[in-house]
Structure formats: structure tokens, C-alpha cells
Design goal:
about 240 residues, 9 helices, 6-stranded mixed beta sheet, globular, alpha/beta
Length: about 240
Amino acid sequence: MSASRFEAEGGDVSKGINLEAPDHTTLSRRSQRLDLALSPPPANEPIHLVVDSTGLSIVGEGGWAAAKHGGGGRRGWRKLHLGVDRSGVIVAGTLTGGNVDDAKTALDLIDEVGGDIRSVTADTAYDTIAIYDASAARGAEVVVPPAKSATRSRRRRSRSNARDRAILRVNEIGRRQWKNESGYHHQARVENTFFRYKTIVGPGLRARHPKAQEAEALVACNILNRMIALVRPKSFAIAA
């Protein structure tokens, strides 16, 4: 309600609540030291983890100049790596530089998940022995399409029998059928999460300091989780 309307309805602006709001510069400076943690709702069963990454542009002087002058200025960006469950809840996340390897960062996402993991789903960029080893250590099945050039290990005792089995199965029934059989379509969950992030929060980072950018992305992830918790329907079994 505006001050003029408040007064017109008999209110007294001078008796309103006096709240001080820090300016943008102060908020940006304080966010560099903000102690935050991702707060997903507690999981009642093992998680089917789905991981991927997306780019977020850095909104600053360079990006502003590029937009205003048609190409002048430098556009920066960072990578947001997320791990979500099959309901779209963000259970792990980190912000890195644009040139960081996705598969290596996914190892940190797997470690970040506190509960049990039933499966790890990702695209072909995550087809590495390290992903299979890290997933096996958590008792999780890997659902990652092998690279088209992937071949079975020539060693008698392969470091990843699971990967060899995936390669053999793809060669046997074809890549399309393997995706249907393995449940790879759940990978769309993390893509939907990125769509929600960029539609609701935005495709860029407004903070300039790296620490402030990390805090900004983490706050956004917690907001998206809170939104899911508020709108998710609750199902209960009832007697016939």
C-alpha cells in the first residue's frame, strides 16, 4: 500500500514501522562473508541423483557495454553444477569457473549428498571411470550413456565392470533402447531445474565478487527448494 493511500484511509505514516534497508553495495559486500548452506528437505528414501551443469552470465560493466554498444566489452560467465532428485529438489550444488571439468565437479556433488544414493544419472560428459568408482562407493547404480567411441576394458579385472556392462548393452540393443530401458529419461529433471532457475531467478549473476556470486547462487537454490516444498502435493494412502 502506498503512503498516500495509507493516509487517505486514516492511517498515520509517522506511526508506521521504521525499517532500514541497506543499499545494493552494502548487501553485495556483506554477501561475501555470508555463511550459507544448501537446505534441501529431508529425504525419506534413497536418492536418485541427477547431475548436470549450466552457464550463468556475469552481469557487470563488460556485459553492460556489450549489450549497449553491440559487442564491445567482455562477457564473463560461471558454471552452476547441480544435483537434483527425481522430484526436482536440489540436493547438491556448487558454482565454479567456466572452464572446470563437469565430471570432476560431479564427484564433489556425490560427496555432498548426505543420505543414501540409489542411482546417479548424467549425460555422456560424465562417462568416466571416476564417476563409476565414486557411485559404486556409495552403492549407487550409474545411468550414463557411454561415449560413442567407448570400448570395453582390455584388462582381465576391469576397474569398472558396470561401465563395461553398459557398453555391451548399448552395443546389443542400441543407444535409444538403452536409454528407455535404463531410465535415462530422468535426466530431464535437472534440465527442468535449470529452466526454473533461469526463468524465476534469471540467467545471470548480479554480484561481482566470486564469494558473493556463490552466495547468490546458493540463496537462489534454497528459494527454488522452498517453492517446491510449498506447492508439492501430498499423497496419502486411504482405506478402500
